[in-house]
Write a structure and sequence with these properties.
Radius of gyration: 19 Å
CATH class of the largest domain: Alpha Beta
Number of strands: 12
Number of domains: 2
Helix content: 25-40%
Low-confidence stretches: none
Mean pLDDT: 91
Distance between the termini: 13 Å
Number of helices: 10
Strand order of the largest sheet: 3-2-9-10-11
Structural class: alpha/beta
Strand content: 15-25%
Amino acid sequence: MPAMLLPDGPPAFLTREDGKNGKLGSLLLERGVPSEELPCIAFKRLPGFAELREALASGGQDWVVITSPEAATVFIEACGTHGSLPEGLRLATVGAGTAKVLSDANLQADFVPSKATGKTLAAELPAASPCRVLYPASALASNVVEGGLEGRGFSMRRINTYTTVPATWDAADLERARSAEIITFASPSAVRVWAERVGTSATAVCIGETSAAEARQVGFQAVHCPDSPGVESWADTVTGLGLWETAS
């Protein structure tokens, strides 16, 4: 039996919250890229979760806009029984990854924009004013979505249901981080945690332009991201750096 071919080269560090790095790690391994998991962030539930449950129970909204997988997870929990939505309520997600979180819980996205950005979602949401939109979000999310929809005349109700906090590292984690050459980022929060703890000398490969813009802002000189956000294209962008060879 021939020897297993193993990827050779610097590992790509995966910085999403614990338990959310598996898909990217698997895709990179398929492409011959080794990786190490080192979460930069964790999520904390906010009192807005109870407000979201009350809003869903009382109804009166036309659309719910969900702009991250974590926001989708919190929304599902607020719904209670899977598939239980007020009659007539429609769901919009920022991209296919967020839509899949919903579909795994038997909730289907009614709209996904042509490009996985909040700006595109706000511009393309297929509704006319007056329209009532519920926006459960991270407390750290920008106002791009709500600003864009308000600009179209929609009535927005934003509820901050969770926030992002820095993940706990020990001395060994910090030592590993200092050796990193390639870091992958899926959120501006993770970018900031890494920059504050380790610096900005490594190459940052971001899932989309929002995180890439933050990486440039905090001082990363080498920043890459795919034209169309998504885990598959993210993995392709990492592989495209051309730093890995397969060795037996």
